[in-house]
Predict the 3D structure of the following.
Amino acid sequence: MTAIAHQIVGLTCETPMHAGGGSKEEVIDLPIQKEAHTNWPCVYGSSMKGALRARAETQVKMDASLIAQAFGPDTLNASEHAGALLVSDARLLLLPVRSLTSHFKLVTCPALLARLLADLARTGNAQMFKVPAVAADRAISPDCQGRDEIYLEEFSFALSDWADADGWIELLLNLIAAVPGVSRGDQKAELQKQLVVIDNDSFRHLSQAALPVLPHIAINSETKTVRNGALWYEENLPAETLLYTVLGCQPSRKKGANTSAAELLKAVTGQLFGQPYIQIGGNETTGMGWCRVALPQLAQGGE
Amino acid sequence: MTLRWSLQPVDSWFFREARSHDAVGVGQLNSIFPPPATTLAGAIRTSMGDHLGVDWHEFNINNGKHHELLGEGNNLGLLNIAAIQVVVDGEPVYPAPQDLLKGADQNDPLYRLKIGAPVRCDLGYVAMPEMDAPAGSKPLENHWITAKGLQQWLTGGLPDKSELIAQSELITSEARLGIGRINKLGVVDKDNGLLYQTRHLRPTGEKQFSIDVYLQGISDDLAQQLPESTSLRLGGEGREAAVAITSADLPAVKLPDMPTCKKARGVVLYLTSPANLNSDAANAAWCLPGFTPVKNERGEITHWIGELAGVALKLVSCVLPRPERLGGWDQKLRKPKPLISLAAAGSLYYCELQHPDLQPLTPELLLTLQQQPIGTDTSLGYGRLLAGLWLN
């Protein structure tokens, strides 16, 4: 019997995302959620679960029994049984960074790639790829386009070819949802051009310094001037960021529902992502936080 | 057969301290570490039941399949947790004994508390630990010690500083602001108090660690139905742990040798896990179970006497960190468990032998003393102790 079933979910931000971290950081009034030890941006599992439940309850009108089985009963009846769904943090995989070399680059680092492999292994989809080693101030890319140098924000990196990237490209492409009207071949070619791997330390810096921070004001409708004190700075994850979350599902605990872990996971993801989109984080009414969803069915792979 | 369930965090963990969100004075709820034994036992029992095909409703109502094996509540049925071991970079580590002191400066050496002459106090005329260290030195809270360092300590010595690991090297604390949403309205449900602050545990990645639970009482046949690796829900907010299940022997610490034993005044009993010493109302909550006070001619308590594992002991002094407060949730009864206090891991009890002529202090005697856990709920791994030497 399967005690727990897993599904990795790729999330490509189509609009900027603000999953608020709560407390003020230096000049940023509303920072986004970050992992405490690395400062890498993320979306905490509790926020992800809330977003999934909101989609289930309001956007796709999921069957009420399935909602209770997956997410647990409502707060007043929370002691009846636990929800069967375990939602991991949404973890950063590719971060779009401004580049003088092209419109932008999708940047990652060896530590993020190694963590992806660990997550896949845990979910029974081990991929035996070699995590590239990248020295400080160097970058590698599957498609250098004849360049030996690349600029990310104001930093220059010596660029060289990522020789054995084919498997990685396929794996990453699996986590990037298809776009209607765009062929997978074109998506793959674009990913090859834009993908850059830099060293962990440089990535840590860029994952903090290269995030958009936007000033906001509130207007007094009568005077058409800024309301007193209504100026704040808000941090976002930019559009095109690639995150992934891992859904774990246990057998249903709801009385009378003998649904297995695998059946429940299939039913939940099927109903949630019939239309492969989800809104995550704040500012929903201003169009933020919309992600395209990929549900790859990965087999064990690699060398 | 002893099965080792080795649990590692996937992202963050949250084991809520024993206070409620709406208690007076609570602003932010912290997470405790390591996870409470009851939390680990519940998570492993659930995962094991799922793997063995347990129908939980049938299980709860009619004592269904595998009820005898898995038990319920704090009763683990046939299962027994032989040890809960924190492992860092593949090596077992132990909670730092609470007589170890360190100055404020990083380069300050370590010191050990010494047991002084009796003084009059509210307990009676009893021996107290004395600080033989510079002012400002503090006990090593939230530190772990390697097996090598612990062996140095058990023989009455000072461990090398390099054998100590600060908990902050393993985990960091991550502030969370949680909200409950009314999805139909798209707003925070602040009227029902669903706006709260917690602190999760986030592995630092500096050192790899796992929580290894050594589980006994499962038959070989059933053990073979368990996978080598799986995942389970652990603690609050539905966080996940990656699990490796293997057959393994308990880690052992080398005993002091005979010549070192001859130099000792007595033994120091060191709790490697929390102990529930509260079952006997006649017993002082902090005291070793079954030990009774002995008074002098003035009617003052001078020490306590009792037996552990058949060894007659005279309890002279102790060093106790703050007790651990433990609550929890009873899944079957759907209500909170009573809040209890546990003697914390790292607690020390200084004992002389009552009959050194009949029961001399030998490595074999130390082994005898540490083979039986003390207190109640020992099937949860409570009350495990090691016996070291008391030299002064």
About this structure: The CA atoms of residues 311 and 359 of chain B lie 7 Å apart. The mean pLDDT of chain B is 91. The longest helix of chain B spans residues 37-51.
